[in-house]
Amino acid sequence: MKFRTGGKRLSFKPASPQGLIRCNSGADSKVWMGEGNYFKAFFRPLGVMCLAYLCPEDCFRALFVLKREIHFSQDGGQLRGENIYYMQMALETAGKALGRTSPNPMVGAVVVRDGQVVGSGYHARAGTPHAEVHALREAGAKACGATLYVTLEPCCHHGRTGPCTEAVIKAGITKVVVAMEDPNPKVAGKGVKILQNAGITVETGVLEEQSRRLNEVFIKYISTRLPFVVMKTAMSLDGKIATASGESQWITGPASRAMVHRLRDRYDAILVGVGTVLADNPSLTTRLSEGGGKDPVRVVLDSRARTPVDAQIITQSSHSPTIIVTTSDAPRVKLQQLSDAGAQIMQLSADDNGICLHELLCKLAEREITSLLVEGGTRVNGTFINSNLVDKVCWFIAPKIIGGHAAPGPVGGIGITALADAMKLSDISLQRYGEDIGIEGYVAKRGE
Ligand SMILES: NC(=O)c1ccc[n+]([C@@H]2O[C@H](COP(=O)([O-])OP(=O)(O)OC[C@H]3O[C@@H](n4cnc5c(N)ncnc54)[C@H](OP(=O)(O)O)[C@@H]3O)[C@@H](O)[C@H]2O)c1
After folding, report:
1. Ligand 1 pocket mutation, candidates 270, 301, 346, criterion most atoms within 8 A of CB
2. Are strands 297-301 and 436-443 parallel, antiparallel or unpaired?
3. Active-site residue (options: 132, 138, 153, 181)
4. Can 132 be counted among the known catalytic residues?
5. For residue 250, is the peptide bond before it cis, meaning its omega torsion is within 30 degrees of 0?
6. What is residue 127's predicted lDDT score, i.e. its pLDDT?
7. Atom of ligand 1 nearest to the CA of 246
8. pTM score, two decimals?
């Protein structure tokens, strides 16, 4: 839907790219049907139609006001409704940079004065201006006396760019509405305090849950210095990820596979075991139908450097590197060959499961890899799950039955004996992808 907002056209879609942020629950109808609203239900649309006829230029503005009012009344309080409405807009704006801001968070900002959006912006990538700066620049002199809606507490430290708190104060903003506190210890409430000390009214916690979900990767990374781990698997209805002969391409249909490429585009790195490299010779690149995808850094668990030098992940052209993770068991000559072919070599220690995964995650985080998509293989999935290292799962289930004892399931290892010990998921969402079903959920850490 397009609105004319203070001379500026904004595209405001109800669904976010992650499908996590809802603009409007569809409850608008309640407003029309509520007691005392029959008058509005009849005369308001009539009024808008007359306006559209008499003055088409102002029609967009009228529609905008009408939609805003619906929001305000359904949330029972003008101020609360206004906060939610503009924060929703800021969240939508932040989501435009999905998968592009690492190691920084996604942030959106909207400047509102006298009920009109006079500026909006988002943080596009690390090292470039923050969302507040873009929004304030666009607002110009109109920022003076305006309210700033921002999805994350404004920063107050000198990083790759200057502190946003300074820019906000300098612009003459009188009120700041913040979705969530910045978990970065360098900020963590200090940004809000600086604004308050400058006499600015600050309101926090507006659509906090949505903002936290949008930045789940950043929150995990900044607070633990480990990447956010997402496990993706594609399996048949009877829980097989390959046939007994190891064939797995393709279990799921084109719509699921297109979604997998969106996941690759979103996350910083992708990991497989050497078993998958040997069985499937995957390229592990991002191929979006519209182009413009970002290849994740490819990571292969390969203690003995069995990855063929002519494997696709080594020979293909890609703007992201392939890292072969090995142990001291790997022959030096083979490591040299892989390195000469363009691969990066990371040598780590081993534990009972193979390469030490905790050490690996620490090393990846040191390289500012904030998120890791694990695309399995039974054994790799098994050790990630058993080591309790997975934060989120994306499971694609195809309406196919493969059967057979020898056909592998998605999660290997010794498993559990008591059902009570099963790994549980929360915040589950279901999605249809053509004939397949996608299930997403968050892993409750064992013992929680
Ligand atoms: N449907 C799907 O979504 C999907 C996705 C991926 C793969 N697959 C299928 O899965 C099959 C391959 O699975 P797989 O279990 O044989 O191989 P895998 O999980 O891809 O790779 C396992 C290998 O990784 C190495 N490794 C090193 N450190 C490890 C650690 N900490 N944990 C686990 N592995 C570690 C080990 O080899 P070294 O000891 O030599 O280091 C191990 O044998 C293929 O048939 C493939 O088609 C299906």
Report:
1. 301
2. unpaired
3. 132
4. yes
5. yes
6. 86
7. 45
8. 0.84
